[in-house]
């Protein structure tokens, strides 16, 4: 039988031929500070595909989902095994090369790519589900579009992200809010154990019993700080079908009804432990796929009967102007996609070129109808019709999880208010959007509790240490210094020096 080499083997053979070739520029090796022989040896030590600037598919390989801060890596290493990760870390540190870790390419600020080495874990795809124990072992490269069908095939569920192409690794390390989080908790609340490779190559288990400080930090401390995540073991939940719902209010000419709807959502569902089985994400947007009017949309996922759902939403249906545009019973992945995707409805032919800026702030107190009118009025000044506000509803199980049990500290919020501003060559208003976003969050300071969701980072945000982690930031620094003492894993908003503001005396150390 003739042996047919794999694509990885073909790529590796081509890479080594190139590296040994007289055609290959010596400048490339000198830019690394290494010899030709060293790089060939490194290639041979890996089992995986390495993409170089001259490789076929390089531009596709280096592109992020939000390519607003593009980079030109010298190498993108698509690791297959732990050995590949360890070899890559050793090589990068030996030759002092900037290194980033990437899984699903969904870092809003492109913190998962750089001009040095990118360790891409997207090939780590194994999943093992134990329905009897209600646990799932999930390798860190899995996206929700990989994981959800496998869970649903056996009637199980894990709260996940709104976008199916998001990977579990980065999402979990930032906490992870989803449509079913009010019922089952923040994504990271359901982690039982992780396997991680530290900068020095050590393979380490972290759980409540083993390396508990690292286990605490990795659930909310954000990705690319402590090591390369290999796998996550989760607690999972039985779930068959659920209801999805969308209700809109038009505020093209008058904000009164829409503001009252926002106030009703807040008071009826987000304050106290009310309807935890009702997942809530509310949007303010321009209906560019419909009548082009300004609208508020209540998006929901409900676990229960239709009768129970109708009872739950009765206060909202009593708000004048309420229009049900979607109501369906289906699997979670269908409801999640139908309720959350496509807002705003950017034309599909423009999607490859669209970029965006985003940012968030948490709100912990009840706002008045007048407050919501002010927020809707500010939305009228948005730079283009692609921008949107979102309000992720907290309460329920999210707010019952003890704040000191993980680095995701946002347990007293009623909602996470966020804004995404999309733009492309056609709108030609990138800088205008960036500046408008700054002005929006200056305006929102009057409503904010001073914190922000770390999975929605923004490079212009000052004081991110307090915004993301509050009183527990110095604890994260101590854990970072223990497991990554040379600060090998670093980027603009990584865990760094202890907080140096007047809030230093408010810091809490747990370990």
Question: How would you describe this protein?
Answer:
The protein folds into four domains: 7-120, Uridine Diphospho-n-acetylenolpyruvylglucosamine Reductase, domain 2 (2-Layer Sandwich); 127-238, Uridine Diphospho-n-acetylenolpyruvylglucosamine Reductase, domain 3; 242-461, Vanillyl-alcohol Oxidase, Chain A, domain 3 (3-Layer(aba) Sandwich), CATH 3.40.462; 466-506, no CATH class. 30% of the residues lie in helices and 21% in strands. It is built from 16 helices and 18 strands. The protein has helices at residues 7-20, 26-32, 36-45, 58-62, 82-94, 144-152, 168-173, 181-184, 212-218, 256-270, 306-317, 332-340, 369-379, 430-443, 464-469, 473-483, and strands at 49-51, 75-78, 99-102, 117-120, 127-130, 135-139, 156-157, 191-197, 203-206, 228-235, 237-238, 242-250, 278-286, 294-302, 323-330, 355-363, 388-393, 415-423. The strands form four sheets. The chain has a seven-stranded antiparallel β-sheet with strand order 15-12-14-13-17-18-16, with helices on both faces. Strands 5-6-10-8-9 form a five-stranded antiparallel β-sheet. Helix 1 runs antiparallel to helix 3 and helix 10 crosses helix 13. The radius of gyration is 23 Å and the shape is globular. The mean pLDDT is 94.
